[in-house]
Amino acid sequence: MTETVTIWNVLIYLVLFAILTISIYTDWRYHKIYNKVTYIGILLGFILNSIQYGMDGFLSCCFSLTLALVFFLIFYLAHMIGGGDVKLILAIAVLMNVFYAFAGLIISSILAAIYGVFLWMRTK
Q1: CB 21 within 8 A of CB 33
Q2: What does the alpha-carbon distance between residue 15 and residue 12 come to, in Å, rounded to a whole number?
Q3: What is the DSSP letter of 81?
Q4: Residues 15, 69, 76, CA angle at the centre, nearest 5°?
Q5: Which spans in the chain are helix H?
Q6: How far is it, in rounded angstroms, from Cα 65 to Cα 67?
Q7: Which residue would you say has higher pLDDT here, 24 or 105?
Q8: Which of 17, 18, 28, 96 is most buried, most CB within 10 Å of its CB?
Q9: Residue 3: what pLDDT?
Q10: pLDDT, tens digit, 9 for 90 and up, residues 101-114
Q11: Which helix (H) or strand (E) holds 4?
Q12: Do the beta carbons of residue 28 and residue 78 sit within 8 Å?
């Protein structure tokens, strides 16, 4: 099934790009992901998906938020990721879909492992 590109899809991608860009910068520079950014992303995810898909979009956002919260709360409680990271993942899950958040976790874990090996080899 292919999805047509609508103005709402473009807005969702622009919001996602803005949130990720701001979060990458602030996390790299200040080691913080600000609540203002993540909460705005979650709110806009609910609004844009509800406008585009109606009640199905709203329920999909609720499902994605709940599933991502339960799954990534485990990582937070194990001190593997911070609270800002969890909220950013929740914003991604609400904006896109929870499965994009899981795919992002897998890809970022692989990239972090490659970077860790690079640092390890450089210090030896």
Answers
A1: no
A2: 5
A3: S
A4: 105
A5: 7-30, 35-53, 55-77, 83-95, 98-123
A6: 6
A7: 24
A8: 96
A9: 67
A10: 888 888 988 988 89
A11: none
A12: no
> The tokens of 116 are what?
């860790």
Amino acid in the structure at residue 82? G
66, two tokens:
């709940």
- What sign does the CA torsion over 90, 86, 25, 102 have? negative
The pLDDT score that the predictor gives to residue 98 is 84
Q: Quick: pLDDT tens for 37-58.
A: 999 999 999 999 999 989 999 9
Residue with tokens 């979060």: 23
Token representation of residue 73: 């709360």
Token pair of 50, please? 């509800």
- CA nearest neighbour of 47 among 19, 3, 15: 15
- Which amino acid, residue 5? V
Per-residue confidence (pLDDT) for residue 16, from 0 to 100: 93
Q: Determine the residue type at 29.
A: R
Of 90, 64, 86, which Cα lies nearest the Cα of 74? 86
